[in-house]
Inverse folding.
């Protein structure tokens, strides 16, 4: 559908335009003017400043708003069109003026709904470099939308049970255009003056500090904000609410740090403010750059109304409540969550905000840095949390898992459609990019890499728009100054080999005396294609021996691409064993020759402390995954895993746990195989369960809490004391809901629900149902605990919530856990879940928040699908609701079948022999 508007038709379009929000892509241009052959703006005009005025009535529960935007623009290429973005905005008046303030006539304006363009056809040609023009647009819009994007509404109930509304923004990646007409591309940065009218008892917050408030008629007030730094549209933000705050003001330089939330949650804000101040100062010092405004606000939004998780809006960062609230009784595990999420969004204030990506192709320059330094600067600001080790068990594991498919994209990847841009926010942008940056940090030495990043910021902050070559040049400068690279190597070639091709390398190592021989190839979990891969990387090879840790982090050498084999001499003493990539600093897998692997496995079982914890984790992960891709060698794999019965450290167990859950997922439909695996797993985890017990200790570290939880999940069914604790956990909830629950209590509860009889389980579900609708249950963490426990009740959970609605409401982390509980532990038929997802989607409109999440949910469900009937059902759902991910779904389903065909028989044989059953 197209619309052609002259000067007087804007108001008449109100009902039609608000009702119809384009969701499909039409392969045709406009009837008049140019036919646009790309989703990119032509950029013949560019904005130099916005003045944005909004008039809201959200305080009265009225969701329509009016706006006025004045955009100063320069003409950089002679044109008779001004093209910008607009969607959902109903234009009531439009005017173009020259630098003298005189009106410039225009023929009409049009909406290209396929590309979400507003095209203004000017009556004359605007000459390049002919001075500044001002485009002024009056418009109306509404925050009554259900996609949790743009400027939209949320709500809460106050202490009297009255619903209170608020309005907030979520513009990344391309939804600023849905709230006001603008040039909505990431590489276009300019300043903003923002003015917001709201009810007198409400307040407005925006990116920049508040300058003043002016009282108006009708019980309203006008808030005026300082001019923002130059920034891109997706970072523009505002909040209209009656929230309260806790604030701390730092000096030298002055910075006001606050967290805002609904009044009843005021007591949950202290830790987030403290975490924010500590992280901000550590970050400023580490990168040698001062934060550029005098305030930064955190805003806590009801989980059900905030699908984004968190958003780094410059100076006004938004989060789910459950991500940022904290009570002292929750302990260190919750502190880890708050520090890392705050750290992620605050790192974006430099990487993403101060330095904006030229296009979404370079999203990894935002998300990779934020993912890495939420742990690495967080480890400086909060050393008590040991965050650096968590990178290995979190982002690195996620990256290796995501990067082993045939269809995975490279870090730098061009796409320009709304749908395609949304899909760039994936594990490659976040986890792989962070892992590659971390590898370079160690390969060059942290001091040199840190210097390079400081150069990167200082050399690019004035222009403020970057692409990958800017990063490479700055790091190269530091590397050259510090002479940390062989003179023949180019940083651009080294880093480019990682950013511009997909996949993870597999380094194969064989030994002949003191000579070690290295080859590389691309690792894939599935069968490689008929045509050999051409992928090759510059790989920093590190190693250590018991007597020589010189190259534990720094590379002994850089393995070049496209070389058949590299030889390297390592002299070792009698009985010494060499471990490669010993601290898991390199982003690659290692395959040892048979003799070397056997030697490592024997040493692990004899004295695993001969290797550092990350080396043990790397050996477990690589050996298991290589076995899966080949379908053999399980006797050695089980022998290696057997050492875990003596393992007590966090990093190896978390990596092993990730792999064991993966095995449970793959074998869920095979009773014999899954039974043998469970017996084996219980044998491994029983000593850890005995060590840590089932009761949370006062002051337990987050790592101990997680190890206890793993032990309960893996071995509770074989322990009488644990089963008693599990039954007690069920009874505890039956007696009433507590304010605080630990992760280990959740694991106990799930184990208990699997052992109670059907009547007891139904009674439990009924009790949860009543508790969740009880308005007195205002503790979000207790509510979250009960909601998560639903996935442990199996088929009975549908008495409270449909599978589809339930899964869409969860965060990605919680959804992953819930699916494992539903399919693996509770044996819920996969067909029931997929049918529920289809039913839920069929009731939702095209602009629902579900539309964003459906690809993620379907891809996650696909990991569990192994039977032909299940595959048919999932393919049908994909074709209907997310056809653009059909190739990935089909690849995942084919990979599932290949894995079973290749691995089940040798794995069952090996388990049978190992367990002597």
């Amino acid at each position: 559908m197209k619309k052609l508007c002259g000067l007087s038709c804007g108001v008449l379009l109100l009902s039609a335009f608000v009702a119809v929000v384009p969701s499909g892509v039409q392969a045709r241009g406009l009837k008049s003017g140019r036919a646009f052959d790309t989703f990119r703006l032509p950029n013949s005009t560019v904005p130099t400043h916005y003045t944005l005025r909004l008039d809201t009535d959200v305080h009265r529960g009225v969701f329509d708003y009016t706006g006025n935007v004045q955009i100063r623009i320069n003409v950089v290429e002679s044109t008779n069109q001004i093209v910008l973005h607009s969607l959902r905005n109903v234009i009531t008046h439009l005017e173009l003026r020259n630098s003298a303030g005189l009106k410039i006539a225009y023929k009409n304006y049009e909406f290209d709904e396929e590309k979400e363009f507003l095209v203004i056809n000017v009556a004359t040609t605007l000459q390049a470099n002919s001075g500044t023009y001002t485009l002024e647009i009056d418009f109306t819009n509404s925050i009554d939308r259900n996609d949790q994007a743009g400027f939209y509404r949320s709500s809460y109930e106050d202490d009297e049970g009255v619903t209170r509304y608020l309005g907030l923004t979520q513009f990344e990646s391309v939804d600023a255009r849905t709230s006001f007409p603008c040039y909505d591309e990431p590489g276009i940065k300019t300043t903003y003056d923002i003015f917001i009218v709201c009810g007198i008892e409400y307040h407005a917050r925006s990116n920049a500090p508040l300058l003043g408030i002016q009282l108006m008629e009708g019980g309203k007030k006008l808030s005026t904000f300082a001019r923002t730094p130059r920034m891109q549209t997706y970072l523009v933000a505002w909040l209209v609410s009656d929230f309260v705050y806790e604030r701390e003001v730092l000096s030298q330089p002055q910075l006001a740090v606050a967290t805002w939330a609904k009044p009843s949650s005021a007591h949950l804000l202290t830790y987030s403010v403290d975490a924010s101040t500590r992280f901000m100062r550590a970050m400023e010092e580490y990168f040698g750059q001062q934060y550029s405004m005098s305030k930064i606000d955190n805003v806590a939004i009801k989980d059900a109304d905030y699908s984004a998780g968190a958003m780094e809006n410059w100076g006004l960062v938004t989060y789910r409540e459950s991500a940022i609230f904290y009570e002292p009784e929750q302990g260190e595990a919750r502190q880890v969550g708050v520090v890392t999420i705050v750290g992620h969004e605050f790192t974006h204030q430099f990487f993403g905000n101060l330095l904006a990506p030229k296009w979404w192709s370079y999203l990894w320059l935002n998300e990779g840095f934020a993912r890495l330094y939420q742990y690495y600067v967080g480890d400086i600001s909060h050393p008590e949390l040991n965050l650096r080790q968590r990178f290995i068990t979190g982002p690195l594991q996620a990256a290796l898992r995501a990067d082993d498919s045939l269809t995975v994209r490279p870090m730098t990847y061009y796409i320009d459609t709304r749908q395609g841009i949304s899909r760039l926010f994936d594990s490659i942008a976040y986890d792989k990019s962070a892992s590659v940056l971390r590898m370079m940090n160690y390969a060059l030495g942290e001091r040199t890499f840190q210097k390079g990043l400081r150069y990167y910021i200082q050399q690019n902050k004035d222009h403020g728009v970057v692409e990958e070559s800017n990063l490479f040049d700055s790091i190269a400068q530091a590397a050259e100054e510090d002479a940390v690279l062989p003179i023949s190597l180019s940083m651009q070639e080294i880093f480019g080999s990682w950013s511009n091709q997909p996949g993870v390398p597999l380094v194969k190592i064989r030994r002949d005396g003191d000579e070690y021989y290295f080859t590389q190839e691309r690792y894939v979990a599935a069968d490689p294609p008929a045509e050999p891969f051409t992928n090759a990387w510059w790989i920093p090879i590190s190693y250590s021996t018991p007597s020589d840790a010189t190259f534990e982090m720094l590379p002994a050498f850089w393995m070049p691409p496209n070389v058949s084999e590299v030889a390297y001499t390592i002299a070792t003493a009698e009985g010494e064993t060499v471990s490669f990539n010993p601290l898991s600093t390199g982003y690659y897998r290692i395959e040892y020759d048979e003799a070397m692997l056997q030697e490592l496995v024997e040493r692990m079982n004899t004295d695993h402390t001969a290797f550092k914890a990350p080396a043990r984790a790397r050996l477990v992960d690589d050996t298991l995954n290589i076995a899966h891709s080949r379908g053999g060698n399980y006797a050695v794999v089980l022998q290696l895993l057997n050492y875990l019965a003596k393992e007590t450290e966090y990093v190896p167990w978390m990596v092993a746990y990730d792999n064991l859950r993966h095995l449970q997922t793959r074998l869920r439909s095979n009773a014999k195989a899954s039974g043998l695996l469970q017996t084996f797993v219980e044998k491994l985890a029983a000593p850890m369960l005995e060590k840590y017990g089932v009761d949370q200790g006062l002051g337990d570290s987050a790592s101990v809490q997680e190890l206890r939880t793993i032990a309960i999940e893996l071995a509770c069914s074989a322990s009488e004391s644990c089963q008693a604790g599990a039954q007690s956990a069920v009874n505890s909830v039956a007696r009433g809901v507590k304010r605080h629950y630990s992760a280990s209590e959740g694991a106990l509860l799930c184990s208990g629900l699997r052992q109670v009889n059907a009547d007891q389980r139904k009674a439990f579900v009924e009790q949860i149902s009543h508790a969740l609708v009880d308005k007195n249950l205002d503790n979000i963490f207790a509510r979250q605990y009960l909601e998560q426990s639903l996935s442990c009740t199996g088929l009975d959970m549908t008495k409270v919530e449909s599978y589809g609605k339930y899964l869409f409401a969860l965060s990605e982390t919680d959804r992953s856990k819930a699916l494992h509980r539903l399919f693996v532990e509770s044996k819920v038929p996969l067909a029931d879940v997929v049918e529920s997802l289809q039913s839920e989607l069929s009731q939702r409109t095209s602009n629902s928040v579900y539309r964003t999440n459906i690809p993620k949910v379907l891809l996650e469900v696909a990991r569990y699908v192994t039977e032909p009937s299940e595959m048919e059902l999932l393919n049908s759902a994909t074709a209907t609701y997310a056809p653009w991910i059909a190739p990935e779904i089909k690849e995942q389903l084919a990979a599932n079948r290949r894995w079973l065909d290749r691995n089940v028989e040798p794995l069952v044989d090996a388990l049978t022999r190992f367990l002597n059953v």
Q: What stands out?
A: The longest strand covers residues 62-75. The longest helix spans residues 886-915. The two ends are 68 Å apart (CA to CA). The chain has a mean pLDDT of 92.
